[in-house]
């Protein structure tokens, strides 16, 4: 996490080539394993548990998924192989920040340059792994509406600035587009529906990460409570610690149920509800459990010699990514009445 790149290239290649993690949820016709979100969620859960420093989320959950959801087969055939084998890193700019997907909040503009190419202009304040990505997929407003474009990291007019953030295990950058050449992915003006689906799947992936981190915090807190001796006995024998650990377990199991349901849901409308529920449950669980774990560890939990505070940092950062609790509560208030309408005449 202290390097400029933010990840280990050897581990990245091993993940892609030896373990095949990048292509788990990619259809076999594109070179993947043909599995789905339930299998990929397990991967993200373990990555969250380890606080893995890697552009995996940006490449797989965002860019690769957006590419698949675009339906642009020539673009998938050209770009997907390099993402699957780990030779290139990618990211996705939804709305220039890490807020929830909103087609009305897109900050990048796209204009035709007189030919088949488009020129992108505008600022993206927060982009996951934006300074190391080789391919940047960008949601931008063209004359026909929200469209998706692919930008090469070496393109003229692109300025990338790494940022210092609370969660040092995940890199973020500011990107500026000044007439940058972009390749249209999919149909001009028709990207909003695919990006909405990508956004919901990214929420499930992020919730899976949060679940893994919460479980690891619980496990380390319980292990420490068994071995830390105070007043002649293990602190885990004190009722206050027992109750706190029990509350942590309840939060973890609730979060696990939400993630399991969201990852298994295939209908886009139901997934939107399940994804917001999972994000809410897992954000609450990780924040509370990481704080409780740090407190149970006592003085050592607040120091750089222990990892406990890193989980608190991850909890605070991911709580706000792609919409905080207030956003998803409001979203559920809008979605649930339309997705759970009762038959006419029923009580």
Automatic annotation (TrEMBL):
<dbReference type="GO" id="GO:0003995">
    <property type="term" value="F:acyl-CoA dehydrogenase activity"/>
</dbReference>
<dbReference type="Pfam" id="PF02771">
    <property type="entry name" value="Acyl-CoA_dh_N"/>
</dbReference>
<dbReference type="Pfam" id="PF00441">
    <property type="entry name" value="Acyl-CoA_dh_1"/>
</dbReference>
<keyword id="KW-0274">FAD</keyword>
<dbReference type="InterPro" id="IPR013786">
    <property type="entry name" value="AcylCoA_DH/ox_N"/>
</dbReference>
<dbReference type="InterPro" id="IPR009100">
    <property type="entry name" value="AcylCoA_DH/oxidase_NM_dom_sf"/>
</dbReference>
<dbReference type="InterPro" id="IPR009075">
    <property type="entry name" value="AcylCo_DH/oxidase_C"/>
</dbReference>
<dbReference type="InterPro" id="IPR036250">
    <property type="entry name" value="AcylCo_DH-like_C"/>
</dbReference>
<dbReference type="InterPro" id="IPR046373">
    <property type="entry name" value="Acyl-CoA_Oxase/DH_mid-dom_sf"/>
</dbReference>
<feature type="domain" description="Acyl-CoA dehydrogenase/oxidase N-terminal">
    <location>
        <begin position="2"/>
        <end position="86"/>
    </location>
</feature>
<comment type="similarity">
    <text>Belongs to the acyl-CoA dehydrogenase family.</text>
</comment>
<dbReference type="GO" id="GO:0050660">
    <property type="term" value="F:flavin adenine dinucleotide binding"/>
</dbReference>
<dbReference type="InterPro" id="IPR037069">
    <property type="entry name" value="AcylCoA_DH/ox_N_sf"/>
</dbReference>
<keyword id="KW-0560">Oxidoreductase</keyword>
<protein>
    <submittedName>
        <fullName>Acyl-CoA dehydrogenase</fullName>
        <ecNumber>1.3.99.-</ecNumber>
    </submittedName>
</protein>
<keyword id="KW-0285">Flavoprotein</keyword>
<feature type="domain" description="Acyl-CoA dehydrogenase/oxidase C-terminal">
    <location>
        <begin position="205"/>
        <end position="333"/>
    </location>
</feature>
């Amino acid at each position: 996490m202290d390097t400029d790149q933010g990840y280990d290239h050897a581990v990245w290649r091993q993940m892609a080539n030896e373990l095949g993690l990048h292509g788990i949820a990619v259809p076999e016709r594109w070179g993947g394993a043909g599995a789905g979100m339930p299998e990929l969620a397990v991967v993200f859960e373990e990555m969250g548990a380890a606080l893995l420093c890697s552009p995996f989320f940006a490449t797989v959950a965002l860019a690769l998924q957006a590419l698949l959801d675009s339906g642009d087969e020539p673009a998938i055939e050209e770009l997907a192989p390099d993402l699957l084998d780990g030779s290139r890193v990618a990211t996705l700019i939804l709305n220039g920040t890490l807020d929830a997907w909103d087609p009305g909040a897109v900050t990048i503009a796209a204009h035709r340059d007189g030919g088949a190419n488009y020129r992108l202009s505008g600022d993206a304040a927060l982009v996951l792994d934006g300074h190391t990505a080789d391919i940047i997929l960008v949601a931008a407003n063209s004359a026909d509406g929200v469209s998706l474009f692919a930008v090469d990291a070496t393109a003229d007019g692109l300025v990338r600035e790494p940022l210092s953030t609370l969660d040092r295990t995940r890199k973020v950058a500011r990107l500026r587009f000044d007439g940058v050449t972009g390749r249209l992915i999919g149909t001009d003006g028709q990207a909003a529906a695919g990006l909405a689906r990508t956004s919901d799947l990214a929420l499930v992936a992020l919730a899976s990460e949060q679940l893994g981190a919460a479980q690891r915090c619980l496990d380390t807190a319980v292990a420490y409570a068994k071995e830390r001796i105070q007043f002649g006995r293990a602190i885990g024998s004190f009722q206050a610690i027992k109750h706190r650990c029990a509350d942590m377990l309840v939060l973890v199991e609730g979060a696990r149920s939400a993630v399991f349901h969201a990852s298994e849901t295939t209908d886009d409308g139901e997934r939107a509800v399940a994804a917001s529920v999972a994000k809410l449950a897992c954000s609450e669980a990780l924040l509370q459990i990481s704080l409780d774990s740090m407190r149970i560890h006592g003085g050592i939990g607040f120091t750089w010699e222990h990892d406990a505070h890193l989980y608190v940092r991850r909890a605070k950062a991911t709580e706000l990514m792609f919409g905080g609790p207030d956003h998803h509560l409001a979203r559920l208030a809008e979605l649930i009445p339309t997705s759970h309408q009762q038959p006419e005449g029923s009580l």
